[in-house]
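Example 9 (inverse folding). The structure is encoded as follows.
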């Protein structure tokens, strides 16, 4: 199982971090060990002093493929969830300043959280999916799939030009504006439309 992540897929988020708006999807990966297993506590990692949440729509790959044409890409994913791409922002900034890869800031154990899966057969319009994140009952991030620079089909097609996609792979599709810091004791709740998807306490 592979975890693909798309960076800077919302213009407002790219700008809030002072990043250039990309002219193609920005792809990075997390290992299988990054996925927080259900019913497993999430512990604040010891190596960072600036842990950030990034709430995202997540796709579940349901078919093996390579060099997928965009017009057929929807056949390769069957469900959507809401997740968090946790980021050690202080570590990431240090590595970026040195021009170094930033897996240590993004791909550590348990850095990827996902909620329950909603089949796309239950989604009225995949280009109009609302999702949100609450921290301690306060809305901190709100997004809609229509605001993505690269939609689900173009993301899957682009990834497949470089990597095979396999059944069970996950695709984090990018975070909207509003990312921010979280600390021990915070409660994070993700929603797709008005459906609760996950509830996570940082320990």
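The amino acid assigned to each position is listed next.
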């Amino acid at each position: 199982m592979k975890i693909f992540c798309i960076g800077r897929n919302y213009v407002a988020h790219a700008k809030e971090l002072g990043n250039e708006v990309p002219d193609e999807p920005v792809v990075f990966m997390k290992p299988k060990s990054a996925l927080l297993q259900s019913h497993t506590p999430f512990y604040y990692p010891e190596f960072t002093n600036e842990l950030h949440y990034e709430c995202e729509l997540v796709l579940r790959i349901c078919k093996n493929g390579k060099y997928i044409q965009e017009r057929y890409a929807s056949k390769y994913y069957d469900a959507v969830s809401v997740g968090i791409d946790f980021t050690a922002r202080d570590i990431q900034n240090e590595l970026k300043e040195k021009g170094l890869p930033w897996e240590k800031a993004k791909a550590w154990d348990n850095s990827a959280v996902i909620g329950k899966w909603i089949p796309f057969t239950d989604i009225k319009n995949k280009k109009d999916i609302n999702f949100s994140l609450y921290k301690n009952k306060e809305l901190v991030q709100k997004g809609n799939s229509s605001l993505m620079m690269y939609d689900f089909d173009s993301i899957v097609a682009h990834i497949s030009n470089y990597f095979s996609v396999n059944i069970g792979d996950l695709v984090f599709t990018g975070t909207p504006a509003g990312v921010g810091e979280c600390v021990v004791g915070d409660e994070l709740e993700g929603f797709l439309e008005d459906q609760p998807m996950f509830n996570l306490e940082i320990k």
